[in-house]
């Protein structure tokens, strides 16, 4: 069995109002005993409460006010859908506002722990997770944060976000499998860029490949031409073309004249020291950097452009330089279904991160139901959260390591003008047990 499936249920999505500080799930009938590990069908309502373990309380910490309240509200909506699909009679979600600040997150964590929460989902931001971590450690209550910062990970703090390392590993492994051996990276000079470069160095070493160029640029700069010229070895290659042109101009034979004619409009000569380049940028920054590469003779027809999950942005589809580029992302099919259902329920398009809230609440609900079926009382032990088969959700398969880090099964997508095309599907299961 591939793990506990948290698959999107097929029922029609309800329109669920914003919960009060303590949100109660809908009353639902448990699935038959043999289906606890794979829950794919909508649950039916029942009238009579069942006897059994006491209510299981799970805290959900979100930025419902402050600068990113829009994202927090979207995560809450996604959590409501998961409650509708999988929430049982004894599963209670305690929703608290972090105010979008570390101090607010700490207060929210203290509040749900005071109400006997046995698991905390969230918060969203790494700085907020850092503030909550010593609180959950002291209470010996696990936390599954939506951050993608592995620095937060620990025995009781599980990082659920799609981490840069996971993304880099996937796209580099795939590029190597397709014959690319020499790599370069052009990354922003900030904490994110540093993490990406370190992950790339490790992936290159593991694949016995070559990392020939590492160039960092100021993410606030309006012109990164100098950095792109260094990456492209532009001055040396232009000098070679000029020297070749001067030599041919001094000759009068027909072969030399034909060669000189072929050099018309050619600004550089010589091979680049890489056949694939990673561009871990997004949005307008990427739209500024990518055309510069082509301008300085890094030809995307000869060099494979690679990205991260940040490339899953429709605004990039019209950029000619990025056509044919590869990047890792959660499998698109389930996300498409989830997005459509969310839009029907709430009237707007969810941010990509919303799927984390659905998967986290679904995971918590499924673990609670499994423990209930086994007659136990503690669903959220580290052993239960780190079960080696993992889980399958909107964002594909994932599992937590005892270190608190997450492993994910990502797809590789190709950027084309018509949209994002799945070039290599995400795996359906993990091939090996957790070490």
CATH topology of the largest domain, by name, is Rossmann fold
Low-confidence stretches: 1-52
- Name the structural class: alpha/beta
Mean pLDDT: 84
What is the terminal-to-terminal distance?
19 Å
Strand order of the largest sheet: 2-4-3-5-6-7
Q: Provide the CATH superfamily of the largest domain.
A: Response regulator
Tally of DSSP β-strands: 17
Number of separate domains: 2
CATH-scheme architecture of the largest domain? 3-Layer(aba) Sandwich
Task: Work out the radius of gyration.
Answer: 25 Å
Largest sheet: 6 strands, mixed
CATH class of the largest domain: Alpha Beta
The topology string of helices and strands comes to EEEHEHEHEEHEHEHHHEHEEHHHEEEEE
Work out the strand percent: 15-25%
Description:
This protein is an alpha/beta fold and 435 residues long. It folds into 2 domains: 4-161 and 331-404, 3-Layer(aba) Sandwich (Rossmann fold), CATH 3.40.50; 164-233 and 272-328, Response regulator (Rossmann fold), CATH 3.40.50.2300. It has helices spanning 69-86, 102-114, 126-139, 164-177, 191-206, 225-231, 234-249, 254-262, 283-295, 332-346, 354-374, 382-385, and strands at residues 4-5, 22-23, 56-62, 91-97, 119-121, 143-145, 157-159, 182-188, 210-217, 276-278, 304-306, 326-329, 391-393, 396-400, 406-408, 411-416, 419-424. The chain has a 6-stranded mixed beta sheet with strand order 2-4-3-5-6-7, sandwiched between helices. A 4-stranded mixed beta sheet has the order 1-13-14-15, with helices on one face. A hairpin with a 5-residue loop joins strand 14 and strand 15. Helix 2 runs parallel beside helix 3 (126-139) and helix 4 runs parallel beside helix 5 (191-206). It is elongated and about 95 Å long. Mean pLDDT is 84; it is low at 1-52.
């Amino acid at each position: 069995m591939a793990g506990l499936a948290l698959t999107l249920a097929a029922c029609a999505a309800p329109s669920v109002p914003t919960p009060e500080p303590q949100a109660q799930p809908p009353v639902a009938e448990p699935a038959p005993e043999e289906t606890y590990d794979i829950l794919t069908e909508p649950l039916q309502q029942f009238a009579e409460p069942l006897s059994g373990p006491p209510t299981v309380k799970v805290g959900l910490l979100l930025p419902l006010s402050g600068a990113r309240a829009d994202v927090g509200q979207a995560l809450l909506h996604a959590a409501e859908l998961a409650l509708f699909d999988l929430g049982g009679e004894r599963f209670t979600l305690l929703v608290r506002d972090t105010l979008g600040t570390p101090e607010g997150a700490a207060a929210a964590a203290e509040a749900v722990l005071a109400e006997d929460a046995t698991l905390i989902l969230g918060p969203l931001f790494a700085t907020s997770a850092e503030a909550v971590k010593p609180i959950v450690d002291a209470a010996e209550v696990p936390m599954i944060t939506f951050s993608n910062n592995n620095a937060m990970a620990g025995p009781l703090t599980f990082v659920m976000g799609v981490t840069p390392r996971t993304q880099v590993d996937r796209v580099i492994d795939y590029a190597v499998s397709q014959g690319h051996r020499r790599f370069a990276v052009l990354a922003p000079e900030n904490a994110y860029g540093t993490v990406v470069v370190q992950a790339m160095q490790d992936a290159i070493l593991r694949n016995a490949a070559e990392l020939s160029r590492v160039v960092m640029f100021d993410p606030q700069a309006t012109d990164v031409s100098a950095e792109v010229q260094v990456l492209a070895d532009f001055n040396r290659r232009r000098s070679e073309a000029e020297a070749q042109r001067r030599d041919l101009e001094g000759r009068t034979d027909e072969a030399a004249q034909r060669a000189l004619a072929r050099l018309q409009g050619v600004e550089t000569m010589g091979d680049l020291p890489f056949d694939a380049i990673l561009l871990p940028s997004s949005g307008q920054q990427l739209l500024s950097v990518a055309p510069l590469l082509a301008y300085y003779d890094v030809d995307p027809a000869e060099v494979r452009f690679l990205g991260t999950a940040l490339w899953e942005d429709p605004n990039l589809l019209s950029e000619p330089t990025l056509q044919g580029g590869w990047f890792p992302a959660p499998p698109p099919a389930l996300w498409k279904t989830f997005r459509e259902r969310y839009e029907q329920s709430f009237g707007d398009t969810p941010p990509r991160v919303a799927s984390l809230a659905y998967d986290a609440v679904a995971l918590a609900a499924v673990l609670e139901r499994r423990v209930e079926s086994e007659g136990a009382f503690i669903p959220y032990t580290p052993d239960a959260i780190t079960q080696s088969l993992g889980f399958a959700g909107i964002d594909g398969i994932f599992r937590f390591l005892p270190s608190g880090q997450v492993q994910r099964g990502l797809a590789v997508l190709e950027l084309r003008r018509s949209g994002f095309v799945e070039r290599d599907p995400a795996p359906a299961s993990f091939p090996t047990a957790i070490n």
